């Protein structure tokens, strides 16, 4: 596959999440399925030394850390606990706290990617029509190439997810093949 | 004093710091003096419910948290330990990790200040001609009013510190009266 | 209507345009219809002293001016000439040249809106699923309220336009009533 | 000289200027001297196909163009007319309108430099302790290397100019040799 000249980073968006919000129950089963695929993909990419970046909501607060959010989701009996346990970040993983939908808005993400010499982003996580899409849009305007594996993003409904994938394929020229077909 | 219509925030810049860098020894005694004044000022401002924001270098990394930096400086026998112990952040304090000299560059600081409805920044910390000055410049361009108490910033030499204060007074119209004359 | 406490600005996106690009022919008739409605809306808003901001592509160049683009479209026999003539900017109108889809990306638009004390944007122009949508997304993250009159935006097909309007209504909470129902 | 692996751009800051402001008279003679050197340097760099970027204040307006500013300064009997005539931009030159001191703040300058594949900026213009310094600071944080020829910047007094040059040499590691020693 023609991915060989790129420098990649895997972005895992809003998966470390208690899912304790109004539409969390609808989203959760889809997120769990995506989470399983992301976990497999993450291991494959780690073996190739591709950096993993957790991009997470700071919930309008600047008083708590990402590590606290991880503890909250892993140790408390929240809806998102199984996902958080499954894809718990490692010491060498990066994280970005975002105050808004897009991982690029008012964060050092672009700077981090420049330092890592990344030109192609592999976007995964939730939700396909909100934080993933907004991050993808901003990435496209900053001229990153996009891989958004169709089995690694989730939204509240299958239709919304599919529509968002089609939009990202068409408008942002994203490669949306499932993760099983990538990095073989 | 004519400060009554403003909404303030206290920024404490790079004081949670191990000072284990080449010029740390020169800077440390001045930083310690400034730290004592900042601590007194911080208590005065806390009593008025003015938010405290720690603005700290992330040392080019996005893999560790501010709370880890605090632990490192408070618990390890580093040069900066006494200062870190003296001005250890509280639970309700905010923090911003900055990848560069200015607290505004590639961070959510401006967004946080907007949410807190702040229009006047009280800048303190180290060093007067680097991170404090760069943060002050960026604050000025974003139309924040500036209070930079002369006894609450430190640089490697008294001359450099004084020159920087005069620049911030002249170019940025900063109020540079010592903290003892403020918020009485 | 409950719009009375807001400060508005009308954004006219990419309508001063020669339409001499590959899909310009498909887009043109829809743009012309939208242009007629935008022109009527513009007069209504001007009578209320609401600022008009032309947001236009700089086509990757930083060597020519907006006024040159206006001349090019008004004076040359280009496909977009009738629209450019119909909605030619006035002296007191503002303009922003954008290097990317979003009017906010790498431009002073946010700063201009802050100076004008605007909290609600009326978005119009082309295309509904590209520059209008990207600008709307960025506006939403900056906490502007959005009015996107359904008869004042255009895309290459009616379906794409409708889908984009529904997305902006749902995700960005935009008011998408037609312009004829607004500012009566 | 070890400049050969870099891609340069010459920035000419605020020289297209009517100088009709309170301290314009003090600044003007220094600016005229600097302008002569910048003009010579500009020709030398143009011969090497190095891009020239005029960075100019938009005076808080987004209603007039750079070309109008050029006309205003070249055709009206303003104090800055001789400088504007001497260093009038050519068709192929770039320009950036800045709403604040720094050429990077709320402008597409960084994007333009990325497109031009520039890694080293040659900063010239006025004033040494305001727009030149603020632009230099922002350039340094974005990791551009800096050449700031001492004879090509001007401030209201020689002392202020020298102090600013020394600061940029020390803090920003700028090469401040006079233009006569560069690009031989």
From TrEMBL, chains A, B, C, D:
<dbReference type="InterPro" id="IPR050272">
    <property type="entry name" value="Isochorismatase-like_hydrls"/>
</dbReference>
<dbReference type="InterPro" id="IPR036380">
    <property type="entry name" value="Isochorismatase-like_sf"/>
</dbReference>
<protein>
    <submittedName>
        <fullName>Cysteine hydrolase</fullName>
    </submittedName>
</protein>
<dbReference type="GO" id="GO:0016787">
    <property type="term" value="F:hydrolase activity"/>
</dbReference>
<comment type="similarity">
    <text>Belongs to the isochorismatase family.</text>
</comment>
<dbReference type="InterPro" id="IPR000868">
    <property type="entry name" value="Isochorismatase-like_dom"/>
</dbReference>
<feature type="domain" description="Isochorismatase-like">
    <location>
        <begin position="9"/>
        <end position="170"/>
    </location>
</feature>
<keyword id="KW-0378">Hydrolase</keyword>
<dbReference type="Pfam" id="PF00857">
    <property type="entry name" value="Isochorismatase"/>
</dbReference>
